[in-house]
Specification:
Blueprint (H helix, E strand, L loop, with lengths): L1 H5 L6 H18 L10 H17 L20 E2 L2 H7 L4 E4 L4 H14 L7 E2 L2 E10 L10 H4 E9 L2 E7 L10 E4 L1 E6 L13 E5 L4 E2 L15 E3 L2 H4 L14 E10 L3 E3 L2 E9 L6 E6 L7 H4 L5 E11 L6 E5 L5 E3 L5 E3 L2 H8 L43 E14 L4 E4 L3 E4 L17 E11 L8 E4 L5 E6 L16 H9 L3 H18 L6 H4 L8 H12 L12 H6 L17 E2 L3 H14 L17 H8 L1 E6 L7 E2 L1 E7 L6 E5 L2 E8 L18 E4 L3 E10 L13 E13 L4 E4 L20 H7 L2 H4 L4 H8 L9 H16 L54 H12 L8 H13 L1 E11 L3 E3 L16 H8 L4 E17 L9 H4 L11 E7 L13 E8 L17 H6 L4 E4 L5 E7 H6 L1 H6 L2 H10 L6 H5 L7 E14 L26 E7 L7 E6 L15 E11 L5 E5 L4 E6 L3 H9 L14 H6 L6 E20 ...
Parallel strand pairs: 1-4, 2-3, 6-9, 11-19, 15-17, 22-24, 26-28, 31-34, 39-41, 45-47, 53-58
Antiparallel strand pairs: 2-8, 4-5, 4-7, 5-6, 7-10, 8-9, 12-14, 12-16, 13-14, 14-15, 16-17, 16-18, 20-21, 20-23, 21-22, 23-24, 23-25, 27-33, 29-30, 29-32, 30-31, 32-35, 33-34, 36-38, 36-40, 37-38, 38-39, 40-42, 43-44, 43-46, 44-45, 46-47, 46-48, 49-52, 49-54, 49-55, 50-51, 52-53, 55-58, 56-57
Helix pairs in contact: 2-3, 21-22
Length: about 1450
């Protein structure tokens, strides 16, 4: 080193130090890779110094100016090794040794203005030196083959390694020589981007040509040194005909480079094609380059230049009929010079090489085969606006274009943006160099690209797409500081889908959009991006998604042949998937849940017609209260096919710990769900906990939109005025069958044990299930079918192999954390449960009307208002799936392994009852310091400030004893039953469980009659399952008193659904290892399920009832609450719990065997959590309703805190829509034809029907105008209310009439109203409107008929024209005529037959004679509809009576 420095004479200390660093850098990094092993470090350092002097001699950089001593040293620059550059430089940078500061600013000025938001490259003073090579390794000890070493890429090498580099224009003489780069940019790979295997962390962009360190070794020229015999394309093209065999005969060819294909790598072979065209015609010679050492030609060859290629031979491509010229290992290329070449003919080639023809072939001048150019357009890229002219024709065009990459749209999918307005797709061709150089700001040149217009709404309108004939060349590197995002087709889910389905451009862009949407929705909160884009197209998330789309969503892909790369590149007529422009047909869409909710809500209010929500016959006669009550709730149902394209639901199935609802989640929001089981035979509520945390997809579902309107419409005339709508809300949720859930990614949770599933049953078909609740089939469904619907199936035996498989599946489920990831270490510091207070110390404060269960206790670890949102559930899900939203995936998995190894405590339970999910005051009556408080008002006020919390209670029976497991993964089968039969021989303790806070998420997964395994962490021993409500009373005393155990469910505890008790009866396990008396004992603990007909029976005496029913009608009513009931404080605006408006629900339900047997259920929604899915046509099972009898002996039920409801069957869309448009009162077509006498005798037990009768007389008629607000008489344009003024100016017309009819078997009194009165009087619309106008000035008109014999006079005023008109029309034959009457039977007017006092003595006069007879009292009917009688029906009725 001293000798090297001393050769420069006297230098400053800075110069000496710089030269010493140069010498040290040369010795450590450059000397080991120099080919000449005899050169010394001093000589190499001197050569490197002189190379720098040549660079700095003519540069404008002040740092390279000559010093006082005459030595040019760039002291501000230093040499850096490749390893140091890659390890220390984390941001893009550039170094320009020859540039001044002004030159650098001018270089970066243009792109910084064009691409807003990007910074220019930061300048650094670093020098790079190394060997430029086209191989990964050039050391003699390299063990890899040449094929593995070369991939057509360039690398810079020093002692420590290699770094890829991109050069715009490569001189082949640089390869293998030591060079110094004066101007370059280093682009590191983005740390957030997944790196394909085999790619480096960064690369170099060589801005200026490198300088050779040894210029004397840089010899040779690209010009031909001597005269060469060459074949021109017009002659050489005949060598590719089938008639010639000239294999292994090397020759020289020349021509103009017309086309250069991209570098391809197929089955481990890397190659590319180029085409030399004739100087006079369009004849082209295809040349293939596959020699590893010649692949660097791809960087040297330039389109439109003329070349001579030496020592090529003709060969056929394996498996094809194409013959091409092949570059050999001794081949070379030169620039064409007409004076240095001599054209050779085929005759000379035959003479020299003794080549014989196998067939007769004339060596004459043949017409060249011209390439079809009808679809080729060459665009002058200097004028980019000319690209719009191509769209005058709708045919696919092939153009060339030059522009700048302005944005990377999706690097993995190969999508870029050009000039801010065009798109670029490179997915249809390979990019072997992983897309190096394709950064925003780079100038690119595209040859032979396909032009497509307006293919997708999510990408630019104009897209240039590169096929295998296209060429994409970087003309100028980007000057912006944008990170490198590698592109690779290996392990690329987009490319895998592209080639699997052979997609055209519209379908490919749609696939890209769907995949982008899924990644955005579920990464990284639920899944990592690596898990999402797994290239396994059969078992990966994306692959399973599109497989199901192809199978179920009718994804019609055009039949296209498989891509042939040789045909695509070599054929005269172009063939590729981009040639034809197909009409896009997208099979489905899968937007985010927030977008779905916004779209559904917008559609719900946009398509809403308020008038359509009201009955046509009643719309004009409703007062304000009735009108607004009917508008308060409405719903609409959408199928996936109602969206265009079809809507597919995708989300993470989870239970909300705040509202208790089942939901589908993504990063944008949540969609509530109602799930029912697919087994119509063993009909139970959905309880499968194995779906929790799974990524699922739904293609068959119903999207329900419930609308809530708080309005103040004075009458139906103002429905078009939006000012009267004060508030409106929507509840949107999906309802579907559990069998339609397709799991895309499991949360390490398997299905429940197969041993306990029932024997295979002949389930109903989808068509039968859809028709089950249709209006036509509800009444006709047989009794046997209804009983089978709710009865367990007959037992079936299972083999021992199935039993063994079941145990192993249960064991594997626990090993994989499939019981919702038991995380015991998360709560190691949690205190144990304290002793429960005495019953008299518990302060009860619920105060719900009709409440039957008032046990209210809680634990001080939870507050009454504690609830978590989606974020908490996402964290739990991330932990269970082994993914992380911000950190590594290994940490949650290690936590799960520690949790499983820590063990757990389990208890098998049979749930016998579940209370309502409602706002409860679940607080201890204690102050701080565990001091008990009294029930004073001050204590209640202090507790009320905390508000009410959502909670529910469930009763269960313990099956077996609690168990403690050292390893939670070793739970197999049902050891609680199998191993210790003595535990099952006698009745065990009951358990009362309280769910509050986050534990309410289990509400919709816990059903009556279900068997569950409760799993707690090992830190809590088995005694946690044996505690009673009181700690001061001895345990034996509580047991003798049959007091239940009391258990407060912690949020981290898990429930694993095992089976139902009927399925446990059917399993083989019950036959071999369970005694029947014990199972019967357990069955007796479940409350008996009645029917609606049983509840309606007067002999029924139970106060709490449970029954399945079909929802026939749903309406709103104003509940009659106690005055002091409003003192209970709670937040009415709690999202997801309450509903807007102060009203309740009235449900009219029908029996599953006979929908004519109807029952009303009243639900007060003040404190209850709103239950979704209670829609007309749904089959719902109600538990614990309070049965009540009115003063008119009508039976109805009330929903109390001990009640619950579960949706068993979701109705078909047709049934729901028919039920929404045709209420129970207007389903005339399905009503039976009856006789009035049959109703009195009891032979017919129908509550509604049709009768053909004769109008005897109108007893009375009342016509009036009433105030829409207060229902007072409205007279002369104002309300006549006396108790306080009423400012309402809107009136509603009302009409009521009482009619006596008879059909020959009995008579009945029928009550008619409003439109029915007009039909009874046979008035036209104009006559009815005129009658209303005459009543207006009076406000009210009452007409009563005084007699039936015709001798009595009408009560009418002489001179009153209106009364005379009513008297005439009510007694005319126009009114007293035969009619067809649809009616509803009033039970309170039904006579009690069998009692003597029910029959009355009646005197009937006929002329001079009078007759006395006993007659039954008249029936009381309510008119539903009046129609003119069909006389053919009268004839049929007459015949029927004669036969009887």
């Amino acid at each position: 080193m001293e000798e090297f420095v001393s050769g420069f004479g006297e230098l400053s200390s800075a110069d000496v130090q710089w030269l010493q660093n140069l010498y040290r850098f040369t010795a450590e990094n450059i000397l080991p890779v120099v080919v000449d092993s005899e050169i010394t470090c001093k000589e190499l350092s001197s050569c490197l110094f002189h190379c720098l002097c040549r660079i700095c001699h003519n540069c404008s950089n002040p740092c390279c100016s000559e010093g006082k001593d005459g030595v040019i040293l760039p002291l501000s620059y230093r040499f850096i090794s490749l390893t140091e550059l890659q390890s220390q430089q984390k941001t893009p940078c550039c170094s320009q040794l020859t540039w001044s500061t002004s030159h650098f600013k001018q270089w970066t000025l243009h792109e910084e203005r064009f691409l807003v938001g990007h910074k220019v490259l930061s300048r650094t003073n670093l020098l790079l030196c190394g060997v430029l090579t086209d191989k990964i390794s050039i050391t003699p000890i390299a063990s890899v083959s040449g094929e593995q070493q070369s991939g057509g890429n360039l690398y810079l090498q020093d002692k420590n390694g290699f770094i890829p580099c991109e050069i715009i224009k490569l001189d082949a003489r640089w390869l293998g020589h030591l060079v110094l780069f004066p101007s370059w940019s280093y682009i590191p790979q983005s740390g957030a981007v997944w790196r394909p295997s085999g790619t480096e962390a960064g690369y170099l962009e060589i801005i200026e040509a490198p300088f050779p360190v040894f210029p004397k070794l840089f010899i040779g020229s690209l010009l031909v040194s001597s005269t060469l015999n060459v074949f021109l394309p017009d002659s050489a093209i005949h060598l590719l005909d089938k008639g010639f065999r000239c294999h292994k005969v090397k020759l020289n060819i020349a021509g103009e480079l017309r086309r250069l294909s991209p570098v391809l790598s197929v089955r481990g072979k890397t190659f590319f094609f180029f085409f030399l065209s004739s100087f006079e015609t369009d004849t082209c010679l295809p040349v293939v380059v596959q020699v590893p050492t010649k692949l660097m030609w791809h960087h040297c060859l330039e389109v439109s230049k003329q070349y001579v290629v030496t020592k090529v031979f003709v060969s056929s491509l394996q498996g094809t009929s194409y013959k091409v010229f092949v570059v050999s290992s001794s081949s070379d290329f030169y620039l064409y010079n007409e004076g240095s070449v001599k054209e050779q003919t085929l005759v000379e080639l035959v003479r020299v090489s003794d080549m014989k023809e196998t067939v007769n072939h004339e060596l004459t001048s043949l017409d060249s085969k011209e390439e079809s150019s009808q679809n080729r357009s060459f665009v002058d890229w200097s004028n980019q606006n000319t690209i719009e002219e191509v769209f005058e024709s709708k045919e696919s065009k092939i153009i060339s274009y030059r522009g700048m990459i302005s944005k990377v749209l999706n690097i993995t999918a190969g999508l870029y943006e050009l000039d801010g307005k065009f798109g670029l797709c490179v997915a249809y061709q390979q990019v072997v160099n992983c897309g190096r150089g394709l950064r925003p700001g780079a100038q690119v040149e595209i040859h032979d690209a396909h032009l497509h217009l307006k293919e997708s709404d999510h990408f630019p309108r104009i897209i240039l797409c590169c096929c295998l004939r296209s060429a994409l060349v970087v003309m100028e590197f980007s000057r912006l500081s944008t990170e490198y995002q590698p592109y690779s087709s290996i392990g690329n889910i987009y490319i895998s889908l592209l080639f699997k389905y052979n997609l055209d451009l519209p379908n490919y862009l749609w696939v890209v959009h769907i995949v982008e949407t899924l990644i955005k929705r579920f990464c990284p909160c639920f899944l990592t991006k690596q898990h999402m884009v797994m290239c396994d197209i059969d078992t990966g998330v994306i692959g399973m998604f599109f497989n199901s789309i192809l199978k179920y969503a009718r994804w019609n892909l055009a039949a296209r042949p498989r891509r042939d790369i040789y045909l695509e590149i070599l054929a005269e007529s172009h063939h590729c998937p981009l040639k034809e422009i197909s009409q896009p047909h997208f099979p489905c869409q899968s937007p985010s849940l927030s977008e779905l909710l916004s779209l559904a809500e917008e559609r719900a209010w946009r398509d809403l017609d308020l008038a359509s929500l009201l009955p046509d016959a009643e719309i004009k006669h409703l007062i304000a209260q009735q009108l607004n009550s009917k508008l308060a709730w409405s719903f609409d149902i959408l199928n996936p096919e109602d969206f265009q394209p079809q809507m597919i639901l995708t989300g993470v199935f989870q239970a909300n710990s705040k509202t208790g609802c089942l939901q589908l989640l993504d990063t944008s929001g949540a969609l509530d769900c109602i799930v029912h089981n697919s087994d119509e035979v063993n009909q139970v509520a959905f309880s499968d906990t194995s779906y929790i945390g799974c990524l699922v997809q739904l293609q068959k579902y119903q999207l329900v939109i419930e609308r809530f309107i708080c309005s103040e419409f004075p009458s139906s005339k103002h429905l078009d005025d939006p000012r009267f709508i004060k508030e409106k809300h929507t509840r949107i949720y999906a309802q579907f069958c559990a069998a339609d859930l397709q799991v895309l990614k499991r949360h390490a949770a398997a299905a429940r044990t197969a041993l306990l599933s029932p024997a295979p049953q002949a389930s109903l078909s989808s068509a039968a299930r859809a028709a089950l609740l249709s209006p036509a089939s509800q009444a006709s469904l047989s009794s046997a079918a209804r009983i089978a619907l709710l009865s367990p199936a007959p037992p079936a035996s299972l083999s021992s192999a199935a039993r063994t498989a079941t145990r192993s599946s249960c064991s594997q489920a626990c090993k994989n954390g499939e019981v919702n990831s038991i995380t015991s270490n998360q709560h190691q510091g949690s205190p144990s449960l304290p002793k429960m207070p005495r019953l008299e110390e518990v302060v009860l404060q619920e105060g719900h009307v009709g409440e039957s269960r008032r046990t209210v206790c809680s634990h001080p670890l939870w507050s009454g208002g504690e609830a978590v949102g989606i974020q908490g559930e996402e964290e739990q899900l991330v932990e269970g799936t082994g993914t992380s939203s911000e950190h590594s995936t290994a940490r949650p998995s290690r936590r799960k392994e520690r949790a499983c190894s820590a063990g757990c405590v389990t208890q098998l339970l049979l749930v016998t009852h579940k209370d309502a999910l409602m706002l409860r005051n679940c607080q201890y009556g204690r102050k701080e310091g565990c001091e008990h408080t009294n029930g004073s008002g001050e204590a209640f006020t202090q507790r009320a400030k905390t508000g009410l919390g959502l909670a529910f209670q469930a009763s269960a029976v313990n099956i077996g004893s609690p168990r403690q497991w050292k390893d939670g993964g070793k739970i197999e089968g049902l050891p609680e039953i199998e191993e210790d039969l003595s535990l099952c021989s006698e009745y065990k303790n009951r358990t009362q469980m309280l769910f509050m806070g986050k534990a309410v998420k289990w509400y919709h997964l816990i059903s009556q009659g279900g068997v569950y395994r409760l799993i707690a962490s090992k830190q809590l021993d088995t005694s946690i399952f044996k505690r009673h409500c009181s700690s001061s009373v001895p345990r034996k005393t509580l047991q003798r008193s049959n007091c239940p155990l009391y258990l407060v469910v912690r949020p981290e505890w898990k429930f694993q659904y095992i089976s139902t008790l009927p399925c446990l009866h059917q399993s083989q396990l019950s036959e071999s290892q369970l005694n029947r008396p014990y199972l019967e004992k357990l069955t007796s603990e479940i409350p008996h399920i009645n029917s609606v007909q049983d509840v309606l029976s007067h002999r029924f005496s139970a106060s709490l009832v449970s029954f399945p029913a079909i929802i026939l009608e749903r309406s709103c009513y104003e509940p009659n609450r106690r005055a002091n009931f409003a003192a209970v404080t709670y937040d009415k605006n709690t999202p997801g719990i309450s509903v807007p408006g102060d009203w309740g629900l009235k449900l009219t339900v029908g029996d599953t065997q006979n929908t004519a047997a109807t029952l009303n259920i009243y639900v007060d929604l003040l404190l209850l959590s709103y239950t979704r899915g209670i829609l007309p046509g749904a089959l719902v099972v109600f538990y614990g309703l309070e049965r009540t009898t009115s003063r008119y002996h009508n039976v109805y039920c009330k929903y109390v805190p001990s009640s619950s409801a579960s949706v068993l069957i979701i109705p078909s869309l047709e049934a729901v829509r028919s039920a929404s448009t045709l209420s129970i009162n207007t389903c005339i077509a399905d009503m039976p034809l009856l006789y009035l006498g049959s109703l009195i005798s009891g032979r017919e037990n129908h509550r509604q029907g049709i009768v053909c009768c004769h109008v005897v007389t109108i007893s009375w008629l009342k016509l009036q105008w009433i105030c829409s607000r207060c229902s007072s008489i409205f007279k002369q344009g104002k309300c006549t209310r006396s108790s306080g003024p009423c400012l309402s100016a809107v009136a509603v017309f009302r009409a009521n009439a009482s009619v006596i009819v008879e059909d020959g078997t009995a008579e009945a009194r029928v009550h008619c109203k409003d439109k029915q009165v007009a039909d009874l009087l046979a008035l036209s619309s104009a006559e009815w409107e005129g009658l209303q106008q005459h009543v207006g000035p009076r406000g009210k008109v009452y007409f009563q008929y005084q007699g039936r014999t015709g001798n009595e006079l009408h009560e009418e005023t002489i001179g009153d024209v209106l009364m005379q008109y009513l008297g005439v029309i009510c007694t005319s034959t126009v009114v007293c005529r035969p009619i067809q009457l649809a009616f509803r039977f009033e039970s309170r007017g039904k006579p009690k037959l069998g009692h003597t006092e029910t029959f009355q003595l009646r005197t009937v006069a006929c002329g001079d004679h009078q007759y006395v007879t006993k007659m039954a009292p008249a029936l009381s009917l309510t008119c539903l509809d009046i129609k003119e009688v069909d006389y053919r029906m009268l004839c049929r009725l007459a015949n029927d009576r004669l036969i009887q």
